[in-house]
Structure formats: structure tokens, C-alpha cells
Amino acid sequence: MGSGTELHRYPDTFFNYGDSEMTNRYRASLCVLLAFNSVSGRLGESKTPATKTALLLALQPTKSVYALGTDITLEFTFKNVSPRRVLATRGAGLEDVTFLSVIDERGRKVPWQGVLPATAYPNDFFVVLEPGQSVSFRQTISSSYKERGKRGLGAAYQIENSGSYRVQAVFSLAPRAYFAPVSNGAVVPEHPVFSNWARFSVVQK
């Protein structure tokens, strides 16, 4: 964004913000995750929370069918549906600002196996969307077998079985005050943003 502000994923690791700031950051992420899991468990695919939002989030697999053991990649699209400038991202930031619920055909959740990098967000990670503007990016949510040695076994959600899958994302910039320095005066979304349910299949090679 060129704002000159460096924002870290773990502020307490790099700066002396104190226990209160750290606690609020982790509590906010935990609350979003718990709320997401609760809604997913109660409602399944019937609906998502009816909260007014400045952003829409669309989720789409890059393929309808993936071979088992290959990269499984999704396309994320944010669209500003408000009359004001809104802060969004050019990356998923899985388990940090974006949480996924990946469900197999038997209704079981695929666990997160990843590791969050304790580094600053990339300079181009955040983006301010003008009214009506959108941004799209792709994110691998389960790495291929050949890449796991490079990325680590827990690169993301490890899908180890063939079958049908569905996935929903929830995006949250919480607490809002923490992300305000990189917003350039734009609105930081007040509520978590829920995507549609996306579907794909995984088959044996």
C-alpha cells in the first residue's frame, strides 16, 4: 500500500505493546474462530450470519476436480459493496485474518496443520478498495506431496483422502484499531465477512 507502516502478525514478539494488546489480538482471533465453528456446526450450508458488511467475499476452486496429492488452490475475491473506501487484503493470511472450514463428504472437518510465520505482513498485503472495486488472489489450502518437503508437512489443511469437499471462509481484521495504521483512512470492516460455500472433488491419480 505504500503507507510506510510495518505491521507484524505477532506484535508482542517485536514490540513492547504489553499483555493487554497481545491478549486482545489473540482473543479477537479466537472469538472469530469459535463463532465461525459454531455457526458452521449449527447451520451447515443453510445460511451465514446476517450482518451488514462493507465487503463481500467470494470463494471458488480453481478446478472442480483435483488429483489426490496435488496442490488444491482456491480463488478469493473481495468486493467493496459500500459507498466508502474499505480495507481488504491481497492474500488469505490463513488462520490469521482468514479462517477456513474444510468439510469432507462425511461431515468431518479437515484440520489445520500449518504454522503462522512470525514476520511482518508483506508491503503489498493490504489494499484499499474504492466503492465497487474488487481484488482477487489465489491461495493453496493443501500442498502437493512433492512440495511438502519444501513447505513443511503442515503447509495448510492436509487433504489426505479422495472424495467431495466443501469449504467456507471467514475474514476478520480484528481488533480494528490494530489494522487502522495501514488503512490510509479507509474503513476497517467491523464484522467478520463470511464467504459462500465452495465445492470440489479429490480423486485418486
CATH class: Mainly Beta
Structural class: alpha+beta
CATH architecture identity: Sandwich
What is the third-level CATH name, the topology? Immunoglobulin-like
**Distance N to C terminus:** 42 Å
Biggest sheet statistics: 5 strands, mixed
Question: Strands, helices and their partners?
Answer:
Layout: H1 11-14, H2 19-43, E1 55-61, E2 65-67, E3 72-80, E4 86-89, E5 98-104, E6 126-129, E7 134-142, H3 148-151, E8 163-171, H4 176-179, E9 193-194, E10 198-203
Parallel strand pairs: 2-10
Antiparallel strand pairs: 1-3, 3-7, 4-6, 5-8, 8-9, 8-10
What would you say about this model in short?
By secondary structure, the chain is of the alpha+beta class.
Could you characterize what this model shows?
The chain is of the alpha+beta class and 205 residues long. The protein has one domain (11-203): Immunoglobulin-like (Sandwich). 18% of the residues lie in helices and 29% in strands. The chain contains 4 helices and 10 strands, in the order ααβββββββαβαββ. The termini are far apart. Residues 10-28 and 38-51 have low confidence and may be disordered.
